[in-house]
Fold this sequence. Notes:
Layout: H1 3-20, H2 26-53, E1 65-70, E2 78-82, E3 87-91, E4 97-101, E5 112-114, E6 119-121, E7 128-129, E8 135-137, E9 146-152, E10 155-164
Antiparallel strand pairs: 1-10, 2-3, 3-4, 4-9, 5-6, 6-7, 7-8, 9-10
Amino acid sequence: MSGKKxxxxxxxxxxxxxxxxxxxxxxxxxxxxxxxxGIIAGVEVAALTIxxxxxxxxDSSINKILDAGQVKDFPNNSVTPFRQGQFxxxxxxxxxxxxxxxKCTHLGCSIAWNESENQFVCPCHSxxxxxxxxxxxxxxxxxxxxxxxxxxxxxxxxxxxxRNRRSxxxxxxxxxx
Length: 177
Ligand code: FES
C-alpha cells in the first residue's frame, strides 16, 4: 500500500469514529448540569453542617474576665450597663458591688434600669427587680443571676464565665473593696 493510500484510509477511519461518537442531546446536557449542581449543593451543605457542629476552636481566646474599671469611677448608688458583658455593675449605697445579669429570670428578656423608679424593669411581662436584683414584681420566679467579682488594686474584674443562679438576694452576694 502506498503512503498516499494509507493517509486517505486513515482520514476515512478518523471521520467514521467522529460520526460514531454520540452527540450530547439538550436533554442530557440539562440532566448532567442538574446532577453537577446537586453535587455542588450537597458538598456545600455538608461543609456548612460540619462547620456548625464542630466545637469552636477559639474558645480560649474569648476574654472571660472583664475589667470593668476603677472602683473610684463608680459612685455609690449607681448602676452602669455593660451590654457586651451582659450585666449591670451595681454600686450600692454602702459601697458594695454586684454584677447583675441583664437577663430576666422569667423568659430571658433584657431588663432595663429605671433610674427614677430605682428598679430594673423587664419590658416583656413587666417583672421588676430592686437594685440588688431581688424580685419586686413577678412573673419572674427568682432574683437576677449575678457574676463573680474580684477587686485588685482598685480595679474591678467581672468573671463572665462564673454566673451564679440564686433564688433571692443575700448579703454574701455583695463584693466589697
Ligand atoms: S421575660 Fe421578663 S417578665 Fe417575662
